């Protein structure tokens, strides 16, 4: 049995750069995107919160939530 990890396993592959970005740089961030990034449920109250945040900060509101 081979004791070394398989270099082709999912844990060894790099994530493509296009998947590492939030998409906020395109300026197309929806209230639903913001709610989901915050870990909250999509409901009218949370969508209203997200719409206020987007109105106040624009797409940068999403960047504040993501590491």
Mean pLDDT: 79
**N-C termini distance:** 39 Å
SS field, number of helical segments: 3
Number of strands: 0
Strand portion: under 5%
* Derived structural class: mainly alpha
Biased composition (Basic and acidic residues): 1-20
Region (Disordered): 1-30
Task: Provide keyphrases for this structure.
mainly alpha, 42% helix, 67 residues
Task: Briefly say what this structure is.
42% of the residues lie in helices and 0% in strands. By secondary structure, the chain is mainly α.
Overview of the structural elements:
The protein has helices at 31-38, 44-57, 60-65. By secondary structure, the chain is mainly alpha-helical. It has a domain at 26-67. α1 packs across α2 (44-57). It is elongated. The model has no long low-confidence stretch (mean pLDDT 79).
Give the SSE map.
Blueprint: H1 31-38, H2 44-57, H3 60-65
Helix pairs in contact: 1-2
């Amino acid at each position: 049995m081979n004791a070394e990890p398989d270099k082709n396993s999912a844990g060894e592959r790099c994530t493509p750069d296009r998947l590492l970005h939030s998409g906020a740089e395109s300026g197309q961030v929806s209230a639903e995107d913001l709610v989901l990034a915050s870990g909250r449920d999509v409901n009218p109250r949370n969508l209203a919160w997200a719409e206020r945040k987007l109105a106040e900060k624009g797409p940068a509101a999403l960047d504040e939530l993501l590491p």
